[in-house]
Amino acid sequence: MKRTAVVLVLVLFALSLAAVATPVAEAHRTWSVIAGGATKDIAVVSNAFHPRTIEIAVGDAVTWQFQGFHNVAFLGGQDAPPLTLQEGDKTYVNPQVVFPAGGKTYDGAGYQNSGLPPEDPKAAAKFGYSLTFIKAGTYPYMCIVHGPAMSGTVVVKERVMGSPASTARQGQTEQTATISAGQKAWAAWKTERQGGAVVVPMIGDPKAGFSLLRFSRRPLVIPVGTTVTWVMRDVFEIHTVTFLGKEKPPEFVIPEPQPQGPPKLLMNPKVTVPTPTKTYDGTGPVNSGILFPPGIPGNPPTSFSLTFTKPGTYAYACIVHILEGMVGTVIVK
User: Fold this and answer.
1) Domains along the chain with CATH numbers
2) Residues ≥6 apart with Cβ < 8 Å to 103
3) How far apart, in whole angstroms, are the C-alpha atoms of residue 248 and residue 141?
4) What is the 3-state secondary structure (H, E, C) of the chain?
């Protein structure tokens, strides 16, 4: 009887040691990344992922919380698809960017895309994207809308020391720093002079990760005969300088219904194509066409100049960002 009891105790002790020595599989977790952000008036926007780098374990998921018009694209070693496609004299938004692609898991192979959120802010607030990573590795991704400067990295390891809560706090801290840097740049913004011309810079900062969606802090007051030049110094955004006169703002994107599948998204030529006018007296619309970030291959236009020939108060807008409040006024005396 005693011998049986001793054997039983030894067996239980051995089992307890085995339980301690055998690692318990860690439950898969979900981590959060913020895509973008903005001030309440949307004068300053974040064009960054927060945090820009995140470390997770194999089998974990990442959920991107969208705060702006962004997408999440893992290229799998391929070139990024272009944002637009040309068909004859028409320019369309690339469906490879607009619509989701890929599955719900990722191992580093192939193209995965969240698609783009709706433009309506309330609908966009409900838009999300989640991806589960099933293989260890380092996976870069980007927002195709805002180019390579808006990029992030997911590092997948067998084990990680951090927690989703601490990483979420890091993301919020990074976002706050980005917005704060943009607010400081906006507070310090001013026009420049080049000879007799007035230069209006359109600003963004790839290191801090922000863009300013405003033309100027106050109406631009100039004498008759002054030339104003708007210059792109933002690597993230595209803009227009559009004086509408008495016309209504045109739609930036026009859906073209198709017999099957989703509509094609035409970029309105009234927005994308510049008018030939170099002077302005308040008569009729004048448009810069799309102004692009500096340094793009092919040297698309990055500035627009207009000489004002008649006194008056002239309102203008960026049609791309008119819903965000990117409007301005030139007062000619």
Assistant:
1) 24-82+97-184 (2.60.40.420), 189-332 (2.60.40.420)
2) 112
3) 38
4) CHHHHHHHHHHHHHHHHHHHHCCCCCCCCEEEEEEECECCCCCEEECCEECCEEEEECCCEEEEEEECCCCCEECCCCCCCCCEEEECCEEEECHHHHCCECCCEECCCCCEECCCCCCCHHHHCCCEEEEEECCCEEEEEEECCCEEEEEEEEEEECCCCCCHHHHHHHHHHHHHHHHHHHHHHHHCCCCEEECCEEEEEEEEECCCCEEECCCCCCCEEECCCCEEEEEEECCCCCECCEECCCCCCCCCEEEECCCCCCCEEEECHHHHCCCCCCEECCCCCEECCCECCCCCCCCCCCEEEEEECCCEEEEEECHHHHHHCCEEEEEEC
> Encoding tokens for residue 121?
């802010």
Q: Where residue 24 falls among pLDDT bands split at 50, 70, 90? A: very low
Q: Is pLDDT at 304 greater than 50 in this prediction?
A: yes
d(CA 21, CA 3): 27
> How many CA within 13 A on the CB side of residue 327?
11
- Asked if the model's pLDDT at residue 23 lies above 60, the reply is no
For residue 201, is the peptide bond before it cis, meaning its omega torsion is within 30 degrees of 0? no
Residue range 143-163, pLDDT digits in tens: 999 999 999 999 999 999 899
Given a contact cutoff of 8 angstroms between Cβ atoms, the answer to whether 199 and 192 are in contact is yes
The pLDDT of residue 140:
98
Q: Quote the tokens at residue 8.
A: 């039983």
- On the 0-12 / 13-18 / 19+ scale of CB atoms within 10 A, 102 is middle
pLDDT band with cut points at 50, 70 and 90 for residue 26: low
Cα–Cα dist 169/178, whole Å: 14
CA distance 328 to 317: 6
Q: How far apart are CA 93 and CA 238, in angstroms?
A: 14
